[in-house]
Amino acid sequence: MNDTIVALATPPGVGAIAVIRLSGSQSLSIATDCFDGKDLMVQKSHTVHFGNIVDGTEIVDEVLMTVFKNPHSFTKEDSVEISCHGSQYIINRIIQLLNKKGARLANPGEFTQRAYLNGRFDLAQAEAVADLIASENESSHAAALNQMRGGISKEIKALREKLVHFASMIELELDFSEEDVEFASREELKELIKGIDKVLVKLIDSFQLGNVIKNGVPVVIVGKPNAGKSTLLNALLEEEKAIVSDIAGTTRDIIEDEINIGGVKFRFIDTAGLRDTTDQIEAIGVERANQKMNEASLIIYLFDLSTESLETILTTEQQLIEKDKPYILVGNKRDKVESEPSELLDNSNYISIAAKQEQGVQELKDMIFAKSQMDNFKTGNVVVTNARHHQSLVNTQNALHDVVRGIDNQITNDFLAQDIRHSLYYLGEITGEISTDDLLDNIFSKFCIGK
C-alpha cells in the first residue's frame, strides 16, 4: 500500500491511444520527473496537461497527463493517467521509464483493491467493478451497476444493524448472568429473525436469476433427426454455425452459441436428434442431448409439421411438462403443409416457422424472451449474481435457524450469542466488514491488471 504502482489500463494491442495508470504517494513526482510540461505537483485535481514524455533528452511520445489528487481519485490516492499513442513500443518504453523512476508494476486488481482498502467502497461493490467490465448485455450491465452503487450492500447493512442491536443485548446479559436479567426479548428476537429470513429467502432465490443474467439463459433445441434443428440454430444466430444436411443424424455433438435478445444473453444449444440408434457416437450425442435438457432453463422441441404425427407431438409435450421447465413447441416447415392441427393452434406454447426460409424466426425470438421471464428483471431490483455472496447468505440463514432452535430449546446465553455472532460474521463476509488476506487475494487476483 506504500508503493506507487503502474499498469496499462486499456487492452493490450495496437490502437489510436492507450492509457497508463499510476497510483500512490509518489505518482505526481514520478510523472513530473519524466514529463516535459507543467509541474504536475502543483496542478489542481482533475486537470489535463499536454506535453512530452522524455527519457533524458530523448522524446518518447506526446501525451496528455490527467491529474487526480487524493482523496478525489478512484483509489483515494494521488493518481495520474497518461494518455499516449497506442504503439506497443511506446507503451513499453513509458512503463519501463516509470519503473526506473520508482513505480512498480501493479498486481491484478490492485487499483480496485486499494480503492476498497482506502474505503472508496465495500467488498461487494469492488467485486461489481469486475462484473461491470465483463458485462456483455443490458441485463448483466444493469445488475452489476446496481451492485456497484451499493444495492446488495444496503440490504446487508440493514440486516446487520437489526441483528447487532439484539446481539449487544444478549452480550450485556452475559455480563449480568448472576443477576438473571433479560435485556432482549426472545420472542421479539424470533420475530426479527423471521423478518430477516424473508429477505434472505428473496436474495438467495434471486441467485438463480442472477446466474442467468451473468452467464446467459441456456436454451436447448431438441427434436428428431432432420427436424431442422441446425437450420433453426443458424437462423437464430444469423450465421452458418451448424452443418446442415438432408442426411439424418448429421449433428452428433453439442453445438452452442450466444445471441442477445431484448438486452439479455441467450445461450442456444443444438443437440443430436432424439432417436434410438446403434451408432455408438450418435448414441453418445443423444445422451448428451438428454443431459442438456435437464440443465436448460428453456426447452425448444422442434418437429417437422409435414411428417410428425399429432399423437407423437402431444406425447412429447407431456414429457416436457413432467420436466417442470418452460418449453416451446415449434412446428417447422409450415410452408409444406396446407393447415396446422387446431390442437396446436390453440396451444399457447406452440408456434410454427419455416426455418430454412427464416419465416417466423423473429416471432419465435419474442416468444423465447417472454418464456424466459427476464422481462421481470428491473434495474432497481437487488439480484445476487456472485456465488460467494450466495454461499454467505445461505450460511447466514442456517446460523439464524440455529438461533431460533436455540431459543426454543432454551439454550444458555453464551451459546445463543455465539450463533448470533456467526450470523453477523457471514453477513460481514459479503461486504468485507469481515475479511482475510487470503479472501482478498483470491477475489482481486481474478481482476485484470490495470483495474
Automatic annotation (TrEMBL):
Which positions are annotated as binding K(+)? 226, 245, 247, 250
For binding Mg(2+), which residues are annotated in this chain's numbering? 230, 251
TrmE-type G domain boundaries: 216-373
Q: What is its EC number?
A: 3.6.-.-
Q: Which cofactors must be present for this protein to function? A: K(+)
Sites where the protein binds (6S)-5-formyl-5,6,7,8-tetrahydrofolate? 21, 81, 120, 451
Keywords, A to Z, come to: Cytoplasm, GTP-binding, Hydrolase, Magnesium, Metal-binding, Nucleotide-binding, Potassium, tRNA processing
Main location as per UniProt: cytoplasm
Q: Copy out the cofactor comment.
A: Binds 1 potassium ion per subunit.
Signal peptide as annotated in the record? none
Question: Which parts of the chain span the membrane according to its record?
Answer: none
Q: Tell me the residue numbers annotated for binding GTP.
A: 226-231, 245-251, 270-273
One Pfam family name is MnmE_helical
User: Could you give a GO molecular-function term held by this entry?
Assistant: hydrolase activity
Q: Where in the cell is it found?
A: Cytoplasm
Q: What does this protein do?
A: Exhibits a very high intrinsic GTPase hydrolysis rate. Involved in the addition of a carboxymethylaminomethyl (cmnm) group at the wobble position (U34) of certain tRNAs, forming tRNA-cmnm(5)s(2)U34.
| Family named by the database record | Belongs to the TRAFAC class TrmE-Era-EngA-EngB-Septin-like GTPase superfamily. TrmE GTPase family.
| Subunit structure, interactors included | Homodimer. Heterotetramer of two MnmE and two MnmG subunits.
Q: Which NCBIfam families match?
A: mnmE_trmE_thdF, PRK05291.1-3, small_GTP
Name of the protein in question: tRNA modification GTPase MnmE
Say which species the protein is native to. Reichenbachiella ulvae
Protein's gene: mnmE
